[in-house]
Amino acid sequence: MIDTLIQGILLGGYYAVIACGLSFMFSVMRIINLAHGSLAVAAAYGLWLLASKFGISPFAGLLIVLPAMAAIGWLLQRYLLERSARGGALLPILTTFGLAIVIDNLMFEQFGADTRSLAPFIGSLSYDSWELPGGIYVGKLAVMTMATAIALLGGLQLFLSRFALGRAIRATAEDPDTAGLVGIDARKANALAAAIAMVTVGIAGAFLAMRATFDPYSGGPQLLFAFEAAVIGGAGSLWGTLIGGIVLGLAQSLGAQVHPQGFLIGGHVVFLAVLFARLFLVGTPIIGRIGFTKTGFAKIRAAIRSTP
Amino acid sequence: MTAIPNGITIERWTRSSQLALGSVAVALVLFAIAPLTLGAGAIDRLTALFIYVILAAMWNALAGFGGLVSVGQQVFFGLGAYFTIRLADAGLNPFLSLFAAALITGAISLPLSFFMLRLKGGEFAIGMWVISALTHMLVNLDRLIQGETGTSLISLNVYESGTRRVVIYWLALASMAALLGILFALLRSRAGAAIQAIRDNEDAATSLGVRVIATKRLLFVLAAFGIAVAGALWLATSTTFQPKTYFSVQWTAYMIFMVLVGGIGKFEGAILGAVLFFVIETFFGAMGVWYLIGLGATAVLFSLFLPHGLWGEIERRFDLRLLPVGYRLKLPGPTKIQWNQ
Amino acid sequence: MTILSVQNLDVRHGLLQAVRDVSFDLAKGDVLALVGANGAGKTTLLRSLAGAHLPAAGRILLNDQELTLVPSHRRIAMGIALVPEGRRLFSQMTVEENLLLGKTSGRLGDWTIDRVFSAFPNLVPRRHAKTGHLSGGEQQATAIGRALMSNPDILLLDEVSLGLSPLVVDRVYAQLQSLLTSGTTIILVEQDLGRAMGVASRVICMLEGRVVLDSPAKNVTRDQVTKAYFGLHRANTGRAAS
């Protein structure tokens, strides 16, 4: 049982990594990018290609893939998302969905239906573990993922609150018109935010490929996981995403113990339960703004207190 | 205070729309007698066309008129087929099962709506996708379905294949006509005015007393029912039921393509989109992955450059409204006003 | 020395013309009071000067540099800063963060965050408070401070007294006093004619998008401005107000 719990929590680390980009993008640009999962898979394929064709280790490969992802984020925002956002709140959903279809099928065309993995390229990291007292084994990769999640979320939080560019992004998210009046180029701020989000997506893709297998159509399920983790974490600080990821990871791991299909079913059911509770008992917004200070949780507490 | 006659009248039907409705009636009659002259392949293809029209019209009703973009409507497509299998297995006549299954699915969508309609925008979109994924998995658990292996609507085999094909064709034609008719009548009714008010500006509509949620619920349930009918009909044509096929997000991709290209929020647009999709599929469907890439890319391009779809552009340029669901202001004199949207 | 030149400016909101054929020149150190009824086009004019609203026709020149179509985020680097109508602070961010945002353009000058706090001492205890929680007067002070942080050559103040009680407006104007006499070029939109004429060196009155009066403050009486404000000076032409 302890084993399952630890696996679940550490799995949450992965979900936090893939969810934080989605959450971030929604917070800043009010766009839910339905191509999020597909882009992570694309990054995974990029790393796999570098590893299998050129012998570049995935970690070194990140040095190539992550800047590429940043550039993709920039271009995506400038030429696709910005334009579709002008057509209303619903259009970006359609645009990003179309994009996801294109990306998924291009990858199928390029790489075929076989599942791939980066596990062969990272030596023993995919199965190495540490032994904890009590005969419990903790995967090194899983711990690494969790550590990365914490570093990413903490780093983003720090960037947003302490750095001028971070403030500029927050200001643009809140009021792009006035942001222009203080000298912020709203388009650049959004493009930067998209680039940052895509870098996190690239990192998520790397971890996805290292801990599991993937195929051209893995993007959809990954998007669902990211979405569920982000929503469970809810309105509040970026740390909510970590909590959301952990809850999802736990739900899935415990579900797997109950039934062979329980992994996915458990995750979806818990997600719906949290959604239900939030909609009918608390009434706070679902994916709200990322609270850029610690008062995000105070908001939730206040909302709970004020519910009739 | 006397009213000054200004020569302005309000009309619902124009000459062109009366012509159009007449043509639709003629077309339906032609379609109905078509099986007498067409071969098996053509009948099958036309049945598919009718199903596509249903899907497009229903997704358009939800997204274009209700403002609810859902990436999970395939759940109703799959449930329509699933319940048909279940009911047929329980002994009900397969043709009756089709419609009973759709009714059950529509009924299920009602409590679902109480939950899902509280979500907004992208959250609703992906939320429906989650529901679809979960439902897919739950259906897989049913022993009758045998997981992804699937099963078949065996009881249909009782009928001779030629008769079966034609009956299904007529059922599809009738369903399409009926659903389009219901939608048309709905949009022309008071509820329809409410729907279009919501589509244009939800807050303004609320302040006028429009019962927004109830109206959206109506659309949600209607779309669920309609899509379930489509799913059941698809099962009838292909006979086999593999959950993966019916619950695939691909169906949403098709629906989005049809509606985006045809014209979102336009009644005629959905029909145009379905016809175009049908034609494209007939010629390019065999290209496999490139066909799908093309669909996706086209959807993206339309959303960026032609967000009103082809019908939207036609309407704009030629001020043509064939199937009138709104009101037209007829101004006196020869002036032609360009409506900017 | 002309610092700002506006030539035949036309600004529209869709099909509605808000600013019609407006021209004036501003000298360095001028304090220009822009008055007029609601809907006269004052805010639109200010916003087009700040770049938030692009004109349909006409030109704006800053120190002989063409400013007309330059986007707003670059105008601040050129020296025009707007304190928007309604303050428009970033309510989720603190006073300090809002002020720091004012530094975005990187212009150098006398105004630093410390100088802003000493000019508006009522903000000091609220330094780390979110601006959404501040009182009206504190918000106005923050908004002005934020604009000052960019060390502007021209400061545009849009209805600083909007929504504030008279005592608070007194305080805001007192705080502005040093600014007003320091030689900063200012364009001030103000509903309160008395206050406007009390601080201005020049008055422009707008009516339905046009300039109906443009005069040094000392050459015009309050009465004359009032007449122009309501369009009464046109009563003799026999045209109905459109």
Describe the structure.
- The complex is a heterotrimer of chains A (308), B (341) and C (242).
- Chain A contains twelve helices and four strands; from the N terminus they run H-H-H-H-E-E-H-H-H-H-H-E-H-H-E-H.
- With 308 residues, chain A is mostly helical.
- In chain A, strands 1-2 form a two-stranded antiparallel sheet. Chain A has a two-stranded parallel sheet with strand order 3-4.
- Chain B has one domain: ABC transporter involved in vitamin B12 uptake, BtuC (Orthogonal Bundle), CATH 1.10.3470.
- Chain B contains 14 helices and four strands.
- Chain B has a two-stranded antiparallel ribbon with strand order 1-4. A two-stranded antiparallel ribbon of chain B has the order 2-3.
- The C terminus of chain B is likely disordered.
- By secondary structure, chain C is α/β, with parallel strands linked by helices.
- Chain C has one domain: Rossmann fold (3-Layer(aba) Sandwich), CATH 3.40.50.
- The C terminus of chain C is likely disordered.
- Chains in contact: A-B, A-C.
Brief rundown of the structure:
The complex is a heterotrimer of chains A (308), B (341) and C (242). Chain A is mainly alpha-helical and 308 residues long.
* Proportion of residues in helical segments of chain A: over 70%
* Spatial gap, N to C terminus of chain A: 38 Å
Extract low-pLDDT stretches of chain B. 335-341
Number of domains of chain A: 1
The number of distinct helices of chain B, counting runs of at least 4 residues, comes to: 14
Helical residues, percent of chain B: over 70%
Summary keywords:
heterotrimer; A: about 300 residues; mainly alpha; two-stranded antiparallel sheet; 12 helices; globular; C: about 240 residues; six-stranded mixed β-sheet; four-stranded antiparallel β-sheet; disordered C terminus
Write the layout of secondary structure elements.
The complex is a heterotrimer of chains A (308), B (341) and C (242).
Chain A: H1 2-29, H2 36-54, H3 58-85, H4 91-111, E1 129-132, E2 136-139, H5 140-162, H6 164-174, H7 176-181, H8 186-211, H9 219-233, E3 236-237, H10 239-258, H11 262-282, E4 290-291, H12 295-306
Parallel strand pairs in A: 3-4
Antiparallel strand pairs in A: 1-2
Chain B: E1 9-11, H1 15-33, H2 40-65, H3 74-89, H4 94-116, H5 121-141, E2 151-152, H6 161-188, H7 190-200, H8 202-207, H9 212-238, E3 240-241, H10 243-246, H11 250-262, H12 267-284, H13 289-305, H14 309-318, E4 328-330
Antiparallel strand pairs in B: 1-4, 2-3
Chain C: E1 2-13, E2 16-27, E3 31-36, H1 42-50, E4 57-62, E5 65-66, H2 72-78, E6 80-83, H3 95-101, H4 113-119, H5 136-148, E7 154-158, H6 166-181, E8 185-189, H7 193-199, E9 202-207, E10 210-216, H8 222-230
Parallel strand pairs in C: 3-8, 3-9, 6-7, 7-8
Antiparallel strand pairs in C: 1-2, 1-4, 4-5, 9-10
Helix pairs in contact in C: 3-5, 5-6
